[in-house]
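request received
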Amino acid sequence: MDRDATEDQRALLDVSVRFMEETCPPAVVRDAERRNPEFTATYRSQAAELGWFSMLVPEALGGASLSGNGVLDAALIAYLRGGRLQPGAFVGTNVVADAIARAGSARLQAEVLPALVAGEASAAWALSATTAGSPAAGVDARADGAGGLVLSGAKTAVLDIEPGGWLLVTASSPDGPVQAVVAADAPGVGVVALESLDLSRRFAEVRLDAVAVAADAVLGDAASTAALVDHQLAVAATLVAAECVGAMAAEFAMTLQYAKDRIAFGRPIGSFQAIKHVLADTSLAVEMSKAITLAAARTLGSEDGHGPSAASMAKALVGDSAIDLAQNCFQVFGGIGYTWEHDQHLYLRRLTTDAGLFGDAAWHREHLCQLSGI
Amino acid sequence: MNDTMIDVEDFRREAKAWIAANLKPRERVRAGRVVGEVTTHEQIDAARTLQRTLFEGGYAGISYPAQYGGRGLTQAHEQAFREEAAGYVTPDFGVVGVVTMGAIGRSIAEHASAEFCRVHIPAILRGDEMWCQFYSEPEAGSDLAGIRTRATRDGDRWVISGSKIWSSGAYLADWAMCLARTDWDVPKHRGLTWFAIPCDAKGVTIRQIRQINGGAEFCEEFLDEVEVTDDDVIGEINRGWAVTQTMLVYERGAGETATPTEPRALAPDLVALARRVGRLEDPAARQAIARAHINDYAQFHLGRRIADRLEHSRNPDHAVAAYSKLAAGVYTPLRARLGMEIGGPAALAWAVGDEAEGRPALDYLNGRRISIAAGTNEVQRNGIGERVLGLPREPSFDTNKAFNEVLRNARSWDGKVG
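response:
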């Protein structure tokens, strides 16, 4: 997918790859202890210097995109990140920065947004309820009478909340969905670390106990919030899909090499049609996933109105394909794939998690129907 | 491109004026390249008349060599003409035309003798000669090099006997390009030769095959001591496999039916179907509709990405085109199946003669055609596995053995390779 980059994008991608390989090689990906708060802060600020958190922010607010299509720029970075199983609040920070740029108060745009772009702080989108439901489920908002909100409830599987970071909380109110930006360490906010399938990232449950939110921390108004949430979902879906396709391509390359190297019955196992055909089908899935994700990024970033549909299509197709790919690659590896030391399980864990984040395939198919007016 | 070649945009202007002066506007504008259903000799004759107008105007065979009656221009000029002519009635020979102009004419131009080309290519471009392929056989499909139709030399003549099958529209064609075995004592790829056979030659019997969808576009042929001469050989004797490979490249290219524009509206046929059967609110039907549309959308972008790659690569690797074919072979039957699921009982039985209601069942019956025809899904998977991914081939036990020995031993094969 990175072969589709323009020359300007190419330069950023090359330096980003060097940064990832130096700062967070596989040994660090595997070792949660080494990804401590100090590492997280350093990684984030170096990534910010490369422009990783500025691409969805307009120039007037301190952002910059390379190609004029910030979503496409970010998706190409996400693709490379996914292949290297990179940690860090890349998707969350970009989604929240975009949301603040679109609908944030002057204070959020003056205080929070520059910190995000500069990598001084990260942001996470608290979206999923512990029970299934709409993006607003799990947290109730009531008006405080002064334009602000009081939030109570819980969100789960929130991705990469970093120390000193911000949370974008989507909550339900009697007037429909509302959103607010709160500090992860604000009074009444509890962040409880969770155990997770994916070992390369961190997940937490966010508990909100009557958290007071000032009026200037609320994003948008009752009339515009539903559309903003749809937009955030489209951006998050596209970027997660791009990370996921990167991980798919990397795992596929690893599996293909194994099929050429592993000998059984006197020949490489990849010469058997039983294996060869699985790999051909799997590589078709990789190619289709790349094609649909690039299409979604191009469309969403060009704001031609079809972006949310394209993003949902990409997330649905990539999610299903990722799980198929992980299963097929595991099967080709055979016993070695069941060992802790082999990287296969890191990808299995990552791909399966990506498939479920910010809406699984079935959710996005239904969302596509609704966006299409049926 | 040579210095004297007309610029595409100049050509477009010239073509536009000619089209307006010589062709009739179409009542309804068609999107992209659509091949009509042509089933009768009357339709073929009508197309011939129109084709002759094109030929005389210099717009038949735009990218065919000039010395054989073409214009000697490029695919880009061809495309410009198609775009300008989209709103006008142009010759429609149906699938026979696609096979003739798309695969056979090109293969002849590349491999046949100059004399053969001088006789046949102008006749093809004028619409006088429609061709079909005598290609697959009842006992040779995916293993095409294993055909058993026999051509035996008898003085200065060749005598051909055998049977052929799956020839599109052969009953409407004037000539056939026939693959036959001319040497049985060498490995299978090295004993094949192509011949031109008039469809009305003595000993040729063409029968339409009644298909599972009720149609009869495909034919089977019986060749009973059909006589031809050395002048009818296309390419070199016993080197027919090279011609076959050329033909397969053109055939797969010519068979492209991808939608020319990005599919944006949610699977309109399936939404209409769900609405008709009252299942638009049913989550299972909604999931099926979305699944079908997402696959359509992904296939479109896969095709566009591959076309871009082939166009802009200095060393285009045509093996990647197998991805488009495999995607069509996998997702077309799946889509048809989703249609049946959405339709439920209404897709199983419908009002007599109601074509719209019978559509899901027809699509279901046609769904696997693309998974089998012009290279099965399995053949595509081998091509991707070996030529794109670089995996080693399966060991083959027949590529170095004389073909008659392979045949003799096939039923008692002991599993030994080599």
